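Hello Y.,

Per our agreement to keep a running log of every chain we model this quarter, I'm adding this entry. I've kept the format consistent with earlier entries: sequence first, then predicted structure.
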Amino acid sequence: MKVEAGRGQRKAGVRWLWLLSAMVVGSIVAIGLRAFLPSGTGASMERPRISGDFSLVAMDGESVAWSQLGGRRQLVFFGFSHCPEVCPTTLLNASRALALRGTAESDTRILFISVDPGRDTPQRLRDYVAPFGPAVRGFTGDAAGVAAAARAFNVYYEQMAPMDDGSYMVEHTATMFLLGPDDEILDLIPYGASAAEIADVLARH
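Predicted structure for the entry above:
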């Protein structure tokens, strides 16, 4: 009994450490990227854009290039389906934000890009994002495709050492990106933003 309790405590400790690390990483990256964003609304040509020839695999199993995914207003978030708190909280709040905005965001979608291609198959992602509503689309890919997508967004991720039961966490940037129709970065939304706060960001752009 003591052994099992100890293992449970170690697992909980690792998960809390991972959560804290993800928050710190997300904050650091958000601060760094925000320095490149112009103050105020500005002209879209002054803003950094996402570009690249990387391809991902959609949750329906189809391979898609970024040129097919970009070109519209969307929220983009990198994470993984085994994520205990950061990812589901962010996706839930983003979905609620779109609901708060109603018809003003009827064409906005949420892209969830997995940084755990070894476990996140298209089927798993389809099942994972379904509860968050039809605006959320999940994407995975091979290791090279995921890495290229992360580089395009300046996103950090790293698989952590396995726990006692063989499962593992993936440390990753917890910032969500708001992209405009020209693939420009309109704003960066830090982890922990509520649905109302995300809705306010959407309203400003």
